[in-house]
Amino acid sequence: AQSVSQHNHHVILSEAASLELGCNYSYGGTVNLFWYVQYPGQHLQLLLKYFSGDPLVKGIKGFEAEFIKSKFSFNLRKPSVQWSDTAEYFCAVNGANNLFFGTGTRLTVIP
Amino acid sequence: NAGVMQNPRHLVRRRGQEARLRCSPMKGHSHVYWYRQLPEEGLKFMVYLQKENIIDESGMPKERFSAEFPKEGPSILRIQQVVRGDSAAYFCASSPTSGSSYEQYFGPGTRLTVT
């Protein structure tokens, strides 16, 4: 069965620190992977996605993620976070008809 | 091009009442998905619909919940006889097509509170 694990529930960083959020998935078929962000009071927005090709994908706002098939991972990274990155981040993997989401990681960036 | 629209944004119901949540997909999108987000949890898939058809309702509770996506008008998620455990954020998403290579666009959600 498909599943997504996000091991970091709450991450607190100072501005300019580097970020890496873990995501591991389980899926038997062709994998499509997504990172969504939910800013306080707002809806989910797509940060980046991986369908095929280059395993290092770049998204909006300076985020990137690397698909490592052997590790079943799709970790999200950003070299230098800003206060405005404070949000909840969700990793997701495709199912046959829907997306399976992790439980989310809450990122708090301290100015 | 307007995004996915949901209304109401906030809904308060007493136990035993009915809740109706509406979702208008993005223009040109004919696939609608409903997800529920319980406090401190990720989004959980409920149902996937195309116009006039329920394609996959494997995540839908067997009782009290129903969904439709009529030929005209928004998709409706209906919860009958609400209970406190139904309190959650309900998100709708849409996509132009289906299959494994798709991206879903999410609405702002409806926050249901059952008192």
Number of strands of chain A: 12
Query: Beta-sheet strand percentage of chain A?
Result: over 45%
Helix segment tally of chain A? 0
Oligomer: heterodimer
Shape designation of chain B: globular
Task: Provide the low-confidence segments of chain A as ranges.
Answer: none
Distance between the ends of chain A: 41 Å
Q: Indicate the structural class of chain A.
A: mainly beta
What is Rg of chain B? 13 Å
Reported for the largest beta sheet of chain B, the result is: 7 strands, mixed
Structural class of chain B: mainly beta
The overall pLDDT of chain A, averaged over residues, is 92
Largest interface: A-B, 26 and 26 residues
**Dominant shape of chain A:** globular
Question: Can you walk through the features of this model?
Answer:
Chain A is mainly beta and 111 residues long. Chain A has no helices and twelve strands. In chain A, 0% of the residues lie in helices and 52% in strands. The radius of gyration of chain A is 13 Å and the shape is globular. Chain A starts with a strand and ends with a strand. With 115 residues, chain B is mainly beta. In chain B, the strands form two sheets. In chain B, strands 2, 4, 5, 6, 9, 10 and 11 form a seven-stranded mixed sheet that branches. Chain B has a four-stranded antiparallel sheet with strand order 1-3-8-7, with no helix packed on it. In chain B, strand 4 and strand 5 form a beta hairpin. The interface between A and B is medium-sized, with 26 and 26 residues.
Summarize the structure.
With 111 residues, chain A is mostly beta strands.
State the main characteristics.
heterodimer; A: 111 residues; mainly beta; six-stranded mixed beta sheet; four-stranded antiparallel beta sheet; 0% helix; globular; B: 115 residues; seven-stranded mixed beta sheet
Q: Could you outline the blueprint of secondary structure elements for this entry?
A:
The complex is a heterodimer of chains A (111) and B (115).
Chain A: E1 3-5, E2 10-14, E3 19-21, E4 24-26, E5 33-38, E6 44-50, E7 56-58, E8 64-68, E9 73-78, E10 87-94, E11 99-101, E12 105-110
Parallel strand pairs in A: 2-12
Antiparallel strand pairs in A: 1-4, 3-9, 5-6, 5-10, 7-8, 8-9, 10-11, 10-12
Chain B: E1 5-7, E2 10-13, E3 19-24, E4 31-37, E5 43-50, E6 53-56, E7 65-68, E8 75-79, E9 88-95, E10 105-106, E11 110-114
Parallel strand pairs in B: 2-11
Antiparallel strand pairs in B: 1-3, 3-8, 4-5, 4-9, 5-6, 7-8, 9-10, 9-11
